[in-house]
User: Which sequence fits this backbone?
């Protein structure tokens, strides 16, 4: 398989869609929801198997244009220009001579398929397009009205083995107004949201803001979509004259040598781990990671000749362990991810972190992933606390902790609705599975759990478990219903582990399918979207040879409603 490449482009004018031939049936409907559609090779359209998903929120600031008009900032709000984007992408259009004929052809087919599905008063703003390792094309786009995007309507279209897959829009409504005065000011929208959520306006740093149209009770209401860092945490806000609609914290919990424990402090001996470091190798800094303090300055020990061998049990040992473990896990991720493996690097690593959570409480019992747009450096950050010894412990020295958070880095490229439980279950389950797949151990964080801790599924042993036979966790069963999304995610990782144990699939193919499935998810993904994504990933990577085994295993793990009406043979490439 060839390396994936980015073909990010702008097609606003070329993808402005005509309303001349819209079906009368579409005009009569009142919902803005979309459902998957497959367009066959001969140009016809059929509904793709699987239930429809609700409208989804757009990608974060790093993947969207900034506001069309300059933003006037009150004294208490600081605009940090440029920090939203962690990677400048070349912009190509269908008329660009550098665009290959095959890419041009596939993009034209997506344009034509969307023209049949998008209501006539909508246009399309393309945010990004790229091919993955299976050579499937993925296009992110946002519907707009007179250039104003719809809040929460980021969508994806795909070309998989020559077939076009686009969302089918059941209907939409025209906005009341797109005149500037209808939106109010960005400042008033932000103030209202901050007051509504009891946050501190004085700490707000706006990273990007743009006018958008929010679907509310069958009408498109003018609003502002704002990405801001408040109290040190990233928030997505949708607010306008009609009220505050969303205030969503974008937080996900959880050449030298480094001599560390390969997995955790339960091992009897440390192991040397090779490092490829920046400069003279005296600091924990590479092209991939930088160990930093809370303010973002380089932190941690120095070592002559790049040889880091601090004494176990010291803060410096934790620093070196976190850095070495992150390097090892990213090297493994790179063989599966292709596109996106180098996005937003270097990632900042903060050890000994005390995290202020959205509930205002400070905690050292946490591991969090913070998206790039939240950071002044424009790079994402993984912050690990030390644990208080009662709830959690050894967070910075346990391989699984930083590796799990690194998994969020890749999932967050697509799945961004962090106030929606099914999306959180997908996030946590995939991040856990990636660790299980690499280590071969379905006990996550075996050194993290004090005997008395109530935070661990198996006190004193495992934070979470990826074996459904041990955890008893399957989708929608009695055990599943008792827990929050962190514990519920064991049903998803357990399902993927079970796929890996299928003799006809194996761990390596299951891992490739899991990684590829991210491309077929949405910003706000349901469990039905996850099933569909797994099937499309198998179709893209393996021509659907595992499709029927996947559906059977999904049903065995409780995904009966999500597989209702799904014909596995529809995902097999002839």
Assistant:
């Amino acid at each position: 398989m060839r390396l994936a490449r980015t073909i990010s482009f702008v097609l606003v004018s070329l993808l402005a869609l005509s309303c001349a031939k819209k079906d009368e049936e579409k005009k009569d409907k009142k919902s803005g929801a979309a459902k998957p559609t497959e367009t066959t090779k001969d140009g016809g359209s059929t509904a793709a198997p699987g239930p429809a998903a609700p409208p989804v929120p757009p990608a974060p600031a790093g993947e969207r244009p900034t506001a069309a008009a300059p933003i006037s900032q009150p004294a208490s709000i600081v605009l940090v220009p440029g920090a939203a984007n962690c990677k400048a992408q070349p912009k190509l259009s269908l008329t660009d001579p550098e665009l290959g004929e095959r890419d041009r052809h596939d993009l034209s087919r997506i344009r034509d398929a969307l023209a049949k599905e998008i209501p006539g008063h909508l246009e399309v703003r393309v945010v990004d397009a790229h091919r993955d390792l299976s050579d499937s094309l993925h296009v992110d786009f946002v519907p707009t009205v007179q250039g104003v995007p719809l809040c929460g309507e980021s969508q994806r279209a795909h070309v998989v083995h020559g077939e076009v897959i686009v969302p089918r829009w059941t209907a939409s409504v025209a906005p009341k107004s797109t005149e500037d005065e209808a939106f109010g000011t960005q400042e008033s929208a932000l103030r209202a949201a901050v007051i509504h959520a009891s946050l501190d306006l004085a700490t707000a740093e706006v990273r990007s803001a743009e006018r958008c149209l929010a679907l509310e009770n069958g009408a498109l209401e003018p609003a502002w979509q704002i990405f801001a860092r408040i109290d040190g945490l990233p928030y997505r806000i949708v607010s306008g004259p009609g009220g505050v609609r969303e205030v969503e914290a974008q937080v996900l919990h959880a050449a030298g040598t480094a001599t560390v424990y390969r997995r955790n402090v339960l091992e009897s001996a440390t192991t040397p781990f090779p490092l490829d470091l920046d400069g003279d190798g005296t600091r924990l800094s590479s092209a991939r990671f930088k160990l930093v303090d809370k303010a973002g300055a380089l932190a941690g020990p120095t070592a002559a000749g790049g040889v880091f061998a601090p004494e176990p049990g010291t803060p410096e040992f934790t620093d070196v362990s976190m850095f070495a473990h992150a390097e090892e896990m990213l090297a493994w991720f790179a063989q599966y991810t292709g596109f996106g493996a180098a996005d937003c690097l270097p990632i900042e690593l903060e050890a000994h972190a005390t995290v202020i959570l959205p509930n205002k409480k400070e905690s050292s019992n946490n591991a969090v992933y913070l998206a790039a747009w939240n950071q002044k450096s424009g790079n994402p950050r993984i912050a690990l606390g030390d644990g208080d010894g009662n709830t959690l412990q050894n967070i910075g020295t346990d391989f699984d902790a930083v590796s799990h958070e690194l998994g969020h880095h890749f999932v967050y490229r697509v799945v961004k609705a962090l106030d929606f439980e099914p999306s959180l279950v997908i996030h946590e389950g995939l991040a856990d599975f990636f660790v299980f797949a690499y280590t071969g151990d379905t006990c996550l964080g075996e050194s993290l759990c004090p005997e008395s801790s109530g935070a661990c599924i198996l006190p004193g042993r495992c934070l979470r478990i990826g074996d459904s036979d041990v955890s008893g966790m399957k989708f929608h069963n009695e055990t599943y219903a008792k827990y929050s999304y962190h514990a519920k995610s064991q049903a998803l990782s357990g399902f993927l582990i079970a796929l890996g144990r299928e003799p006809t699939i194996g761990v390596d193919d299951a891992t490739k399918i899991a990684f590829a499935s991210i491309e077929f998810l949405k910003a706000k993904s349901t469990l039905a979207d996850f099933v569909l994504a797994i099937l499309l990933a198998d179709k893209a990577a393996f021509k659907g040879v595992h499709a029927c085994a996947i559906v059977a295993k999904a049903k065995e793990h409780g995904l009966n409603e999500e597989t209702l009406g799904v014909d596995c043979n529809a995902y097999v490439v002839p």
Summary: The chain has twelve helices and 24 strands. The chain has a mean pLDDT of 79. The first strand starts at residue 34 and ends at 39. The longest helix spans residues 315-337.
